[in-house]
């Protein structure tokens, strides 16, 4: 019992912190926003520190419902870091946006969402998975519509909720099928059932579970909500969706695929390959016509999910490690891009989102343009930027697993994808300067952009040995 | 020199210079760039001077396993040495050519050029497969910016085309490289060069590498990015593009395709020969009808590069020596020709051939230098291109007389389009007022062109200086590929006639 408590310490810290801060914000009202935000970041840091203990690699807790291994710990660190960034960015964003203020509920909701994601990635049972996923989703629906006076934000929240509820239903249906035909919701016992005689019910359950998870990660063909929600949600929330949420959804999909459905690799394998290639190509082609930078980044995230799934399709330990490498670097690149998007302000300080407004930014805001160029080339996977390395790791895993057609198709997709990243660079560097953005003197945001830019620069390659050891250990924990 | 990391320093100098340029003012950036490239040139001279001809195959080797599965592995052989020399020689000239022509966003421009230099030297010096790929591919970013920001009217289209074409070629190569690393268990290029890959895999690997190098080279029919990129790029951009970036393709064939997949190379030789023969004749004819000077030289580059590919796939020392010499000679001569175009473009701001005429009257010094480089491009004996083309065609003749015959016509056509260009620009009457007002070469422009002219002459008169460093490497490469050489149609039937080696010069004489 005590051991189980220690192993779930990060989630307990997050949940207790969220409840406590909710009370503080209820009593303190609007004035407590700043204090609650700082406390929320502290709670996230605390949860991260708690991973150093048994929560980092302790094994099974709560009679096998929950797994605290280094695989989950790796994902949790990314999730907590991205959540903290989403909280740190918010005051600046809402301050500069007319009509809506940041309220203390915002950090509380992010904490709840983080607690849900943290539960998800450690789930060793379909119901724990479902509860975690719903906790993070419900918080996310509210966060998406946080700008109450903005119709786009309200639309995003509603759309996300309706489609998300549908996806949850699909997932739950899949879970019920799997439970009905395997007699258990625990991953190891499900795996035993899959290893036994084939049954149609189990296969259907597998398909529905993957469909539900594909919705959560925004993989094609369940991606339709992504551009609308990403566009409408407040930018810091979009950053959270594009980073932490993707990490949680992909990581749990990997866990389900390997730990629960490992014996029937050949059954989920075509699903993953289809979702992967369709995401890569649709993400790349869909982005070409976009004029809004947030929608562009939404398609970019679909595209990136596709690449991460290539690693899962490999199905090997090396493949899983490459997915983790991919996610780690992807989080840095995508958060960096959204940080730059946050700097796009017109003379009145209002958010500008059109790609055309970036024109000539290399002359009006050279530092910012340079940073965004690095993120774009990095997302496109062009060396010497560090974004190349995760793609290399993914393709390497696919080639080692003998998946040449998939690797070749994926690299061709990356060329299509390069086009729209190039378009952003072209707008910033080749076009004549347009309206000048109002400089934002926010040392925190500037500092975070600089940190992200350094991480994706060629200096990032020096982190490869560390990243390799870390992800290999994490992947080993799963097999 | 052992233990002194001269290659790393040659990479570090322009890299540091690039950062310094980016932060400096316009005039300071020009000087920083010039000094950094000159320092690199001096280091290059030191490198050549201390290169032990006939010594170890790989010299100045550095190795540090800093990136986990791949490492910072550098080292050069004779081929890499000469191509690095070409890069560091052309770079200060490019900076000088941009001294006055580039007036906007100078710090970024100089930084992009220095970055290009880092990546080119890195590509030639890399001894690790993945490190090679990183340098090879990264060169796209600065060139994309150079074409897109400082290019001509249609620069955006050209920059996209350049980027996406070359990227598509490269990513296929990446998958092949990963397979090789997986199969051989190493990413060390010297080891891979001695690895015998299974035959069925060789074909696929060869095709994947071919996709990349054929685009870079560029070979017909994937050459169409080159004229666009050249025409739109600023003068110095064209010089670097023609001078060094095009050599990456040839270097790739030399370093990867031939030694790593000799059987596949032999199997696909007819394909390479066929495409090259088409390229020579077709692009020469296209060059003949161009009205834009830069486009004409760009098409002539495609034709010259085809002479390189036939030489490389001749599977004998003549062909490979010749291919290397054409690469070096073409790098210098077409670079110089682009500079010559830049000189008059800076004065009249048009590249239309018909807008000029009679320059011999008011620009005599220019006319002389332009004539010299025109002749070098045609392949006049005594210039660098003669040596290269002669050897290359001689090597090809031993494999395929027909291809040698077809490609030799390129030299006749080359003479036609180059002399036609020269006649229209330099000779004739001086009828146009704005052309009459053009002034002759400034000391700066002479200082840019004269060193190239000197080296072109040196290569033509005493090619031994350039052949010697790579002799051992050529021998090693031939030893590796010769057993797989495709059947020849020029071998004498048993017991009849002398060795056919004397036949090639006859074909050559017809050309002149």
Automatic annotation (TrEMBL), chain A:
InterPro entries: NADH-Q_OxRdtase_suN/2, ND/Mrp_TM. One of its GO terms (cellular component) is endomembrane system. Coiled coil: none annotated. The chain crosses the membrane at residues 12-29, 36-53, 73-94, 106-123, 129-148, 160-182, 202-225, 237-262, 268-289, 296-314, 320-342, 368-389, 401-422, 448-470. It catalyses: a quinone + NADH + 5 H(+)(in) = a quinol + NAD(+) + 4 H(+)(out). Keywords: Cell membrane, Membrane, NAD, Oxidoreductase, Quinone, Translocase, Transmembrane, Transmembrane helix, Transport, Ubiquinone. The keyword Transmembrane applies. GO terms for biological process: ATP synthesis coupled electron transport. Residues 123-416 form the NADH:quinone oxidoreductase/Mrp antiporter transmembrane domain. It is found in: Cell membrane; Endomembrane system; Membrane. Its main location: membrane. It is a multi-pass membrane protein. PANTHER family: NADH DEHYDROGENASE. Belongs to the complex I subunit 2 family. NDH-1 is composed of 14 different subunits. Subunits NuoA, H, J, K, L, M, N constitute the membrane sector of the complex. NDH-1 shuttles electrons from NADH, via FMN and iron-sulfur (Fe-S) centers, to quinones in the respiratory chain. The immediate electron acceptor for the enzyme in this species is believed to be ubiquinone. Couples the redox reaction to proton translocation (for every two electrons transferred, four hydrogen ions are translocated across the cytoplasmic membrane), and thus conserves the redox energy in a proton gradient. This is NADH-quinone oxidoreductase subunit N. The gene is nuoN.
From TrEMBL, chain B:
One of its GO terms (biological process) is ATP synthesis coupled electron transport. Its EC number is 1.6.5.11. Residues 484-512 are annotated as: Disordered. It comes from Sphingomonas aracearum. This is NADH-quinone oxidoreductase subunit M. InterPro entries: NADH4_N, NADH_Q_OxRdtase_chainM/4, NADH_UbQ_OxRdtase, ND/Mrp_TM. GO terms for cellular component: endomembrane system; membrane. Residues 59-120 form the NADH:ubiquinone oxidoreductase chain 4 N-terminal domain. It is a multi-pass membrane protein. It is found in: Endomembrane system; Membrane. It is an enzyme of class 1 (oxidoreductase). Belongs to the complex I subunit 4 family. The chain crosses the membrane at residues 6-24, 31-51, 71-97, 109-126, 132-150, 162-181, 201-219, 231-254, 266-289, 296-316, 322-345, 366-387, 399-422, 446-463. One of its GO terms (molecular function) is NADH dehydrogenase activity. Residues 126-411 form the NADH:quinone oxidoreductase/Mrp antiporter transmembrane domain. Keywords: Membrane, NAD, Oxidoreductase, Translocase, Transmembrane, Transmembrane helix.
